[in-house]
Amino acid sequence: MKPIKSLFLLLALLASFSFGAAWTGSNSEPENMKKIDGKSFYVITTPEELAWIAAQVNNGNNAINAVLANDIVFGANTSTVNTTSAWTPIGKDSTHTFKGILDGAGFSIYGVYTKGSNYGGLVGVLAKEGVVRNVNMKKASINALNYAGGLVAYNFGTVSGCTNSGSVSSNYSYSGGIAGYNTGTVSNCTNSGSVSFSNYSDYFCLGGIAGYNTGTVSNCTNSGSISASSKYSGGIAGYNSGSSAIIRNSYSVATSLSTTYALRGGLVGENKSSAQVINCYYDSDKLTGLSAIGSNSATATNATGLTTANMQRDQFAWILNTTNGTEANSKTWSRNGGYPIFANASNLPIYKVIFNDDGTTSNRYTNYQGLVTFPSDPEPAEGYMFSGWFNSSNVKVKSSTVFSADQTVNAVYIEASNVYFAVRFFNADTTLLDSQSVQYGKTPAYAGTPTLPSTAEFSYAFAGWHVEPTAATEDFDYYATYTQTTNSYTVTFLDYDGTKLQESSYLYGATPGYAKTPTRASTVAYDYTFAGWNPAVVKVVANAEYKAIYDSSLVKYTVTFMNGSEVFATQQVAYGTSATAPEPAPTRDGYKFIGWTPSFAKIVGDLTVSALFEELILRDVLIYSDDGKVIDTAKVEENTKYVLPDAPEKEGYEFVGWYDGDGNKLGMPGDTITVTGDLKITAKYEEIKFSSSSANSSSSVAQSSSSAIASSSSAMQSSSSMIASSSSAMQSSSSAIASSSSAEQSSSSGVSSSSSSEDPDALHFSAHPRFNLHVQNRTLQIQNARIGSAFAVLDLQGRVLRRGVVNSPEFSMELQNAGAYIVRIDSQVQKIRVK
């Protein structure tokens, strides 16, 4: 399992755990290596990589080294044990021992599970050359048939700086919180996990640190419960035996040591065969009715029970550091409340400081900060003064001295008459005011009264010295003290023109304010609204003036538009701007609106504007047919526009325009004229003339006096024009229309404009045409046309307006003007009117 970098980035910042899914029993070679003290170490970041180390050792490569780079989690998280994938220990048995170094670097391993093997632990058998250090085993469940240890099942090597808080149990033989069986060295280790047996045997050994010890256990502590029906059980070791067996400077605060058949002790179940227990203790308030050693036939020195109170003192940590004062301080133990802990940079070792006053001594012990509580100063003899406590290097120690070793400090006295002290007087800002040499017993005095310059916020008055000067007994510094008074400042609020609105006194740091909202009278052009102060009001730090500022807006006036005595419209108009003439304009029967008075181009006050009218002159417009009958009338205002109406149709005639009484043509329907007087308008028509003609298809020829139309593969000639079809040439003196495959044909068919013309009198209108014509507005729609036929659209003057080849049975085209048109498709001809 590789670290999940993206999804758990936040967790990676909070803790260096590398977990997600539980370990499945697989292994993978570590990706990185590093050098430590000249030796090569595999860098372990996952359970798989740690399992690879175990596999290598168990396959014969047993001297490799490994170091953790982060916490290793075998379960799904740090709160679970991985019971689905049992761990095979590194150095799984006596023929596959681990001879390398496993360095935890202070990281933790979570959720390791072993069961059923002969050796159970993170490491099975640790050889004499092997080292396990700085590893924290958490949430582990260690079980074995014979040898079970929180860190190592059977230890020949060195285990140091390790902790275990998981459970350890064995079916038979040996169980220990750190090592099941120890014949090597276990030091500076802590167990807080439970240790137990599941069966009974006369040879079962159960201990908080080691089940069976024939080696060295030093500077260790146990707080885990010991529970089993084993024969030998102890807070530190169940069985301690042999001339090399020694347990020293350790303690147990286990809360339970239950067994049915046991030789049990607060520290050791049985101690025999030249074994030693030195300077070890158990909490007799937690384990009552027991001795330190259940059965002792060897050496036990200062192995006893102590009360909780005595074990939770700095002195007890010093006892562990010095083997109860018999050895140099090991600097191993500190205490920061509660029981002793291992010293580190934040918890300094505990030292003993002896204060010696000419043979009278007082023993004091440093705290976790290296500081010690001093005794009261001794009384000097007459004529002498106590100078202080001095160490063996004649350096004076003080209450702020951080001690780094056990030591004795001695009281030093000096003859008073020859002693002078340096006494200095400082101002409150640490400025030196005076320095004096004052004889012992004399009281120093400062000449004058110190002063401290005022700040913007405060003024100061001398209040005395921080300590009232007394008879000099040591070098001393006096500091002036002052009472402070917050300064007041004048704040003035002014109107825009400098008129004083308010003047008040405010303390430094206060926020000044004007009680009311300032106002400014309007002018004819502007209204004013208070907008704030210039500068912006801030907390008082000095005398200040603030001037009111105003936003201005143009005054709005009412403009009333009157139509006679009635109000036609009203508008609110800003000063200096113009009103807008109402739309639509007012009306009055028989009159024409001509404007407003007076002018409203620049408003400077309320204004009434009246509508102006002039009498309306109407002209009669009479519409006549060509036979003199009145067909329509209209009243039209003089000098206004009039749109010529549609003309009635007249069978056999073509409408040619509207004409006035003088015979002048006014225009066609839809045209606009200006009426300047009474007007008579008459419709004018011209008769439509038809001539005899024939239309032949395919191979026929038609001739007339003025035009010819040729279709498909025939030709038609006349004196003035000729129309050639297919691939023949097209020639005419005045016009020609080519159909079918002529040179005028478009690649996609279409309608083409033409400037040619033909004689409309030569066209024969079809009685039963095969195509239909419709008109919608000015859109000409053609239906049922034969695809491939040639078509043309002409006006009545014979001008060809559109022509082309039919591509679709239905098509349409836009015509620009109203009027009559002629449409020809092949030999079929129709007439249509467009309004």
UniProtKB/TrEMBL annotation:
Gene3D superfamilies: 2.160.20.110, Listeria-Bacteroides repeat domain (2.60.40.4270). It is found in: Cell envelope. Keywords: Signal. One of its GO terms (cellular component) is cell envelope. The keyword Signal applies. It comes from the Bacteria. Residues 736-763 are annotated as: Disordered. Residues 1-21 form the signal peptide. Residues 736-757 have a biased composition (Low complexity). Residues 172-196, 203-227 form the GLUG domain. This is Listeria/Bacterioides repeat-containing protein. It comes from Fibrobacter intestinalis.
